[in-house]
Fold Sdz-33 F-box domain-containing protein.
Amino acid sequence: MDFNCIHIDLTSFSFTSSDMNRYLKAWINGCNFRMKYLSLDLRPLDHKILTDGIEVEEANASIVRSYRIPILRGPCVFEGGTDILSKDGRRATFQQIIDRDYLDSDRRFSFKMVVWPEGGQ
């Protein structure tokens, strides 16, 4: 997935944990340089596969961070999340909130990723 977009919002795609792992690695290496926000509705991802081979920093759920995005009515809020750094030093946070009470084979949950402004979060 190589886009030249700032905001990416896709629904009803069947990306796997391995697909998303490849995307995160590509972002780390400079792909989608302009991206600031990614939103996908995906089946539950396996965090271990998602982060395989990627240096990550897990934020505690008590750490709440928000990012205002002009296309959204309110801020994108992360309670915890997983941080990664691109090779050029940009920091991003991603998170998928899964409601375990509603798991079934077709259920999709929001996966969000924000690239923080320089000096932010």
